[in-house]
Amino acid sequence: MDLPTQLLLSVFTLLMIIGLATAAQRLLGVRFGRLRTFLAALVAFGLAQPMLEPILSSLGPVGRDNPPAASAMGILLLIVMSVVLIPMVILVIAEALVPPGSVPGPLEFIRSVRGRLSRARRYSQITRIAIKHGLGPYLRGRGERLDDRSGKVRLARSLREALDEGGVTFIKLGQVLSTRRDLLPAEFVEELGRLQDQVAPAPWPEIERVLAAELGGPVDEAFAEFDRTPLAAASIGQVHAARLHSGESVVVKVLRPGIWPVVSKDLDIVRRLAATLESRTRWGRSLGLRDLAEGFSTAIREELDFRVEAANMAAVTASGGGGVTYPAPISAMCTERVLVMRRLSGRPVTAATPEQGPRLARDLLDCLLRQILIEGVFHADPHPGNLMLLDDGTLGLLDFGAVGRLDDSVRSALRRFLLAMNRQDPLGVTDALLEVVPRPEDIDEAALERALGQFMARHLAPGMDSVQLFTDLFRIVSAYGLSIPPEVAAVFRALATLEGTLVRLSPGFDLIGEARSFAGRHLAERITPETIKESATQELVALLPMLRRLPRRVERIASAAEHGRFTMNVRLLADDRDRRYVTGLLHQVLLTVLGATAGVMAVILLGTAGGPPALANTSLFQLIGYNLLVIAAILVLRVLALIFRRPRASDDRQARQ
């Protein structure tokens, strides 16, 4: 065979395979991956000859002197449908056994292998660090149970040293855990608290390269003075003192070099490690490590762009300090990796005296509640590392990488929630909570009201400890299937972090009493005759157009009822999504009925004796029966393909909208 003939034959074969793939996909009515469809058609093309050779041989020799019989068209139709049926069967079986997405494609597989190798190296490094500090048995869920304080202190120190050596992400994780007294014993909280302000700084040459790249020139040109020794080093960046050419003292926050790739890799490892520990260990399940890791991952990603932090700082500063001072950014010098802000003079808040603690805790609580309930822009991460005790004895609030925002409707519902909690009104608390979160259709409001009533009786009595306050509230919300919106979840996380900070500032701080006092000072005073009059006026103005039309509509309805013409129009399936669903369901039922009918008719015709001969040993009835049998198979395969096809994520999102 010469080369042109081979090329022509190859092109014809390729076109036949593409035609088979297209026909199979169109008949099934479901979109499959190109590679999967092509492979099914290729297999079908390879199987077609040995499977159809007996049918073709039964026709006998065909030529000029021996033309095909009249039944050749039926045979030809049967052959074509049989060939198309093969890739359809392969695709349906593959859809049932290997659904799309369960096996990665070539590119995804290569990326997955590279990711696994990269994670394996990091896993190995983390494992070596854990073993080095004696944490290996605890990662396997086989660590000994420690009941004495000295053993807990040793384990806490080992955990702190391992997190510190693990790098930026694990340092940040330790900082978050250090504020959760409701989750960890006091020994761990105390030890992990040292990560707030005892992080090793990055070398100056690396910091200098970042500054030069972001500011467009040498450090000495951008600043009149720059202290190369950092004031503090945190998990995300470190802070240096400097002075502008204008003479103003500033602090410069620099993102740690090469942090993005490390953080992305570590966050993936943290999520996987949390899932493993939650499934294999008792303490992991009790802490809810999977949810904790997801929330931590979301929060840390929001802190890696200092331009966002500068905008957040400006927004919070514009809303007022409320007795707490915020640093102001120098916007012209703020970039993605460098943040320049006016300097606040002071020292770490952990240096506060016991006499200063209650006042500072009260100011911090008042500030954050004001931000959340009144101003709508709030600091979402108020842990001790983000606080300073200024020289004048007041608080300074730092690090605005995580800031939450609430609209007026959510703030109003939260205010009603706090006021109802202050009155210990379970019904009011329930109504306010169901305004804050989406209301499920099947919620048992009476049971929720009783649970919230028991919650208030347990935590709002005088002298009760508030450490478990937010933990128990989260449990109630989760137990009744309430889905918390992200902005409200940020409020709860901030308040839970604030709770640990307040206890550290002032052990025994009366969080509940101070929150009630805030409600009395700032929320109750907003409900005055003037504000009620203003709200009523606004509502009345909004209702006026409807009130003008109401008498005419009432008169029209009464007249129609009086003369027996009162009717109601109800449009079933008015939503296009409902119509598509019912139409698709009817199509599947119709295809099933048609397939079953064709199959029954095929069996009847194949079992019928006699009839006009079509081939040597096959009657016309049997030939029609074979064709009907293939048609029935095609229809049934189309229904099975729709059944086995799992809904895609985009379809799920559209269905929920």
TrEMBL record:
Membrane-spanning residues: 6-23, 72-94, 589-611, 623-644
Limits of the ABC1 atypical kinase-like domain: 194-429
Cite the entry's keywords alphabetically.
Answer: Membrane, Transmembrane, Transmembrane helix, Ubiquinone
Q: Which Pfam family is one of those matched by this entry?
A: ABC1
Q: Which family does it belong to?
A: Belongs to the protein kinase superfamily. ADCK protein kinase family.
PANTHER family given for it?
Answer: CHAPERONE-ACTIVITY OF BC1 COMPLEX CABC1 -RELATED, PROTEIN ACTIVITY OF BC1 COMPLEX KINASE 7, CHLOROPLASTIC
Q: What is this protein called?
A: Ubiquinone biosynthesis protein
- What is the phylogenetic placement of the source species in the record? Bacteria, Bacillati, Actinomycetota, Actinomycetes, Streptosporangiales
